[in-house]
Write a structure and sequence with these properties.
Number of helices: 10
Largest sheet: none
Structural class: mainly alpha
Order of helices and strands: HHHHHHHHHH
Strand content: under 5%
Number of strands: 0
Radius of gyration: 18 Å
C-alpha cells in the first residue's frame, strides 16, 4: 500500500472503476449504434469495453476480476444503454460524444489500473503497464467485435496518453503529493493529451514496408 489511508484508497478505486465503466459503456454502445447493432448487441459491446481491460489486468495480477464480485458494473452498463437509447437524438447532435466518453473512460481506468496494481504491492513500472492495459484493452476488444482495426494501432494518440498519465502519477507520488491530487492531475494529463493530439492531428509516425515505397516511386 503506497498511501497510509486504506479506506481512501479503496473508495477512490471503486469510484474510478464505476465512472470508467459508465463512460466506456456509453462509448461502446455509441460505436455499436453506428454499426446498427440491436439493443442486446449494444449492451454486449458496452460490457466488452467497460470490463475488458480490467478483466485482463486482474487475471494477470492473479485476483478475481473486479466485476465478478460486484454486480453494479453490469447494472451500470445497462443504465448506460438505457440513457443512450433515451437520449439518442441529443447524442446524435454531439458527433464527438463517443470520443469524449472514450477519453474519460481511458483516464478513469488508467488510474484505477495503476492504483490496484500498486495496492497489491507491485512496482511502479508494472503499474504503468497495467494502467495502460486497463485503459486500452477494452477498446481493442470493442473494435474487434465491430470488425474495425483497433484505434490504438493506426489512428489517434491513445495508449501514449495513458502511459504519459502513468509517469505523471509516478512523478507526483515521488514528490509527495496527496492521493487526490495525484489522481486528479493524472486524469487531467491523460484527457488533455488526447484532446490536444486529436485537435491538432498529432499522431505517431506510420510504418511503411518496402513494397509500398517502391509502388510510390513507380507512380
Amino acid at each position: 500500500m503506497i498511501y497510509n489511508d486504506p479506506e481512501l484508497v479503496h473508495t477512490l478505486q471503486q469510484v474510478l472503476e464505476v465512472l470508467g465503466t459508465f463512460a466506456f459503456a456509453i462509448s461502446g454502445i455509441r460505436h455499436a449504434a453506428a454499426k446498427h447493432f440491436d439493443w442486446f448487441g449494444g449492451y454486449v459491446c458496452g460490457v466488452a469495453v467497460a470490463i475488458g481491460g480490467g478483466t485482463i489486468r486482474d487475471l494477470i495480477l492473479g485476483v478475481a476480476p473486479f466485476w465478478t464480485t460486484d454486480i453494479r458494473y453490469l447494472l451500470f452498463t445497462g443504465l448506460a444503454l438505457i440513457l443512450t437509447v433515451a437520449f439518442r437524438k441529443a447524442m446524435k447532435q454531439l458527433d464527438n460524444a463517443w470520443f469524449v466518453f472514450d477519453t474519460l473512460g481511458l483516464a478513469f481506468f488508467t488510474i484505477a489500473g495503476m492504483q490496484k496494481t500498486l495496492e497489491l504491492g507491485h512496482p511502479f513500472w508494472l503499474a504503468i503497464v497495467m494502467g495502460c492495459m486497463t485503459g486500452v484493452a477494452g477498446g481493442v476488444i470493442r473494435d474487434v467485435i465491430l470488425n474495425n482495426v483497433p484505434v490504438i494501432f493506426h489512428k489517434e494518440i491513445y495508449a501514449i496518453a495513458s502511459i504519459a498519465g502513468g509517469f505523471i502519477y509516478w512523478a507526483l507520488y515521488v514528490l509527495g503529493f496527496s492521493l487526490p491530487t495525484v489522481a486528479i492531475s493524472t486524469f487531467l494529463v491523460i484527457c488533455l493529451t488526447r484532446f490536444i493530439a486529436v485537435y491538432y492531428h498529432i499522431t505517431l509516425p506510420i510504418l511503411h514496408d518496402e513494397e509500398e515505397k517502391n509502388d510510390e516511386k513507380n507512380c
